[in-house]
Model the fold of this input.
Amino acid sequence: MTKRTPSIHLQKLEALHFRVIEKHPNCSLIEKDYRIKRSGFKGEQQLDYYLSFVPAKICEILPDIRLQANANLEHYFQMDTILKTTKYNVIFETKNHTGEVTYNTLTNQLTRINELGELEVFQDPIQQVKRQELQYKKLLQSMNPQTQQVPLIPLIVFTNPNCHIKIVPEGSRLPKNMIKAESVPSKLYELEKMYKQELIETKVLRQLTKKVLKSNTPYNPDILEKYHVKEQDLITGVFCLKCINVKMRWVKNSCWRCENCGFKNKNAFLKAVNEMILLYGNEITNKQFSNFLEIPSRVTSYRHITNLACSTIGFSKSRKYLLSLQNQYPILAQQ
Done:
């Protein structure tokens, strides 16, 4: 199984959530979107745990796939997880809701009363996954006509163990493609018994997987533009890896030191570098670098940025340095 990592969209949301000033008019919206996105990621990780019980030799599992529905239109569809075999395919749509959720089989509506006592209404997950099924099936057939004979099963998985699913009207049954995460292994076992005939060769399956991965286009917005955030709306500086909300200062020719607890680390600025790249992009000027990290000395800033840069663009004051994300300091969503 391809290891699931936080999407670039989630990483950008998290960086913005941590850095945007509280008085920004979109601060509450940013926090709401970040919480939803992070919750979804946690739910997908929970699904991955149960999928880990599936023998790797019988299937290929692809997380976070976003594909273009029509080559002539800028329209994409997203699937949380795809399980591919030579006998059948499965689309998993995860829901990480807590508390009691209600699904009305007459109105096809999913609702929940949140912690504040407010009614939340969600789009019909069954129709949502059916749309994914139709779009993905059409795309697979365009890649290889043999896939037309391979069954595609859409499943809605409620991943939070503290979620209770209530079905109304009274006497209605839970839809067959709506299950809890702990039921995933047994559901796949049922499918293995139901679909015994291999309909495509393993070689064809691997070729299709490569094509799907090649076509995968993660959602990667300009996060500052999306939420109308300007550079002056961002909190700058290097924050202590222990105190979190307290800034560190560079001690000349030495390391970064926390003003509160005294913690020292020469690489503490790398997390701030990651956040800067996620917010500004990977082409950074020395002035942007020194301002964001609050390095008073341009010489010190220059030494740091040149040590990190893969290459440069331009000359003199207009020169930009190409930076890449520092994997040793992942975003908080991975912790």
User: Anything to note?
Assistant: The longest strand covers residues 60-68. The chain is about 35% helix and 25% strand.
